[in-house]
Amino acid sequence: MTIKKLLALAALLFAPAAHASPPLPAATIDVIAKTLPSCTGGWQSAAHDWKMIGPAELAPRLALLNRPSLALDEDGGYELYEIGKAMLFPALGAPTWFVDGGPGIKCPARPKEAIALLEYLVGEHPGDLRGWGNAFDVLGLAYAIGAVGAPDPVRAQHYYLRGRIHWQLLGHDSWSDGKDKDLLANIERAGMRPYLEEQALRPYSGAAHIILAEEALPSDPARARKLLLIPDFRALNRLFELEAAGSIPEADKPADIPIWVEAIRMTGNDKLIARMFKAVNALNGGTLPTATERPAVKTLLALLRRDTLRSPGSTPPIPLRALVDPQGRLLYVQLCTSAGARFSLVSSGKGNARRLFDPARLPPLPVPTIDGRPAYGWVILPAVQFKSLDNDKVSINLIELPAESCAVPD
Length: 410
Description:
Blueprint: H1 3-14, H2 26-35, E1 40-41, E2 43-45, E3 51-53, H3 55-58, H4 74-88, E4 105-106, H5 111-122, H6 135-145, H7 153-166, H8 183-189, H9 193-200, H10 206-216, H11 221-228, H12 233-245, H13 257-267, H14 270-284, H15 297-301, E5 318-324, E6 330-337, H16 344-355, E7 369-370, E8 373-374, E9 377-388, E10 394-399, E11 408-409
Helix pairs in contact: 2-5, 4-5, 5-6, 6-7, 9-10, 10-11, 10-12, 13-14
């Protein structure tokens, strides 16, 4: 089973169940539907091959509001959020501090219905959220200023704290009740400690983990490390800071490596890659050997993941090596070149070359050894060469190159 599947399975087994918001009242949907044709503007959507999404394209999404919120797909939730934000924005005084900026379309103000739509999307429990988490900040401001009725500072703080528990992106401290700027103390005074702990059990919960790790740090650095060691860049970045300060020891274990691998897969961040290399070096005792055996070209060619190609064009052979664990499982694919042999064509194709090798498809690769025992290390892969064909197609060839071609990592 792949790392990705294991993490997904763990999330399903241990995350609390979400609670769907009920369908919106027909009268609320009707007001939104009658207002939408008056909206203007739009945005280009990567999810729709960069087509323009405007009021006409959004209108069919309103039918989703007749369903429980958990029936929404990802795109549906995002686009309904844009409708709700656009119809609430004029009543908010056009704030400039929202993380995602202004709405993608401009609409007449319908604050009552917009608030109902956004509350439908966020629900009341950690797993309820559908669409952008920025909805918490929008709702917080709506209640803070009284977009409908009198200002409600308690409800405003509730949404601001939810946003802070989910994302850690709020650009101000409106989550405070005014007594202090202690985030955890505010969460507890608001009765939201159970919400925080429930969110920490869910996938993509880095902000909640950071809050709990800061609480644990003074008395239990090992627990703080465990809380921060998840596939979330912000949580891992905080771990880096604490390791650098000596507040948390670097105590790498084999069980940590899949977490680094998954985080790298999600972000491709160089800092994470360097930290993973540091971890496997430490587990090996300070060295990363290269396996003497190489995988068979014929076997690999049949298992390449071709659906990941992104118009590579023609390239020279791109030399690669794979970092593997002591069982031969692929962890990471790295471009490598001999000194002075780097050039733009290789750089343009290296992402495509790396993505061809999917750990879920590959059998165990040759295992590097140290003094006869299996170890983390490198396996030299065949070089990948792309060649453009007619009709926007591309051929892939795997070529055995001398070991010297992988002497210097990129």
